[in-house]
Amino acid sequence: MKNFIWDFDGTLYDTYPMILQAVMKVLQKNEVTADEREVYKMLKEFSSKKVADTYGIDFVSFTQALHGFEAADKREPCPFAGVKEMLAAIQASGARQFIMTHRWGEDTKKMLEKHDLLVYFEEIVGPEMNFARKPDPEAILYLVNKYQMVPEESVMIGDRIMDVLAGNRAGIRSCFFDNEGLLSDVNADFVYHSPQEMTQLLEK
Fold first, then answer.
1. Tell me, which fold does domain 3-14+78-203 have in CATH?
2. What is the pTM (predicted TM-score) of this model?
3. DSSP state for residue 81 in the 8-state scheme
4. Which residues form a coiled coil (predicted)?
């Protein structure tokens, strides 16, 4: 692989404990009682929109409340162990790296800068660019076209089914980052369980 398009939350950064807690607070605020593990699986298998729709909450209101609870959380999100070494190895090989995320770009940049990781990425595509949300391939196709990527040499990597679907629908390769064993039968070209393993993509 020569072009790596990364998801951010749950793939590069271990942010889901904070995201899940914020989602549960949004549900509580809306007087919804839900099983935490079921909500977590829904986030991973689908999206926060699926959670909002399932419990009859307007998605715009859900998102605003979610961002508020996330901002109030003073814990510092950190990359998974081995991410920096993985990104450095990929960059050293001459491959290019990008991020496509539902997290706002400036927030993503701040977190990467804090851990000296921003230097590894050529571009970050966030919701402020108004592309359709994953699993729609629109944002991936924007990157593929802008950087003239060869589809067979390009891969979308993420921890959710929507990441895999977005890559598949864009006509590039897909990689599922399965560090929890929560989901099965994911239709990805590659499945890896750690950042260290994902450097094997350089040989594909």
1. Rossmann fold (3.40.50)
2. 0.91
3. T
4. none
